[in-house]
Hints:
Elements: H1 2-16, H2 21-32, H3 40-52, H4 57-73, H5 80-111, H6 116-140, H7 143-146, H8 150-169, H9 174-188
Helix pairs in contact: 1-2, 1-4, 1-5, 2-4, 2-6, 3-4, 4-5, 8-9
Amino acid sequence: MIYLQLLWSYLKIGLFGFGGGYAMLSLIEQEIVSPGWITKQMFTDIVAISQMTPGPIGINSATYIGYVTPGNVDASFDSPLWGVIGSLLCTLVVVMPSFILVAKTSRFISRHHESGVIKGIFMGLRPVVVGLIASAALLLMNEENFGSESSDLIKSIAICVAAFCMVMFSKLHPIFIIILAGIAGLILY
């Protein structure tokens, strides 16, 4: 049954996905796109929607994937009720491992936060998280995001560079820059 498969996949994502939502993206893609539950294009769209909505990207994607996957896999589950059940299950399962881990270790870590071992563990995790986030960036550099033609790639890079420069060298609000990038995309594409 698709719900058991989703539960197992999101339990693995919740247990082994650390470093935030972007660090989880490659694991989410492997668990959800590889079995064919959703397409690569849908995954890219889910990432974009998850970035625009409030809340962590891992939880937002779990909620959305839990909603659409049952109907994509089996037409008899193509109703809002089954989607809501899938959303609730996936969201709960992806959050529970982190919740339990933080609840069990927070007192210990706060008691021993000056310990060399604890500091060493966190120092060792930093490069891993940076690597996972870089992996997510590479994962999202695909045809679905940048187009298949070289002119589309050049336009996308130009929008990216312009947005980066506006963020770094101006005092414009990020939401305004996002709106400008959307307008540029609308005009250029």
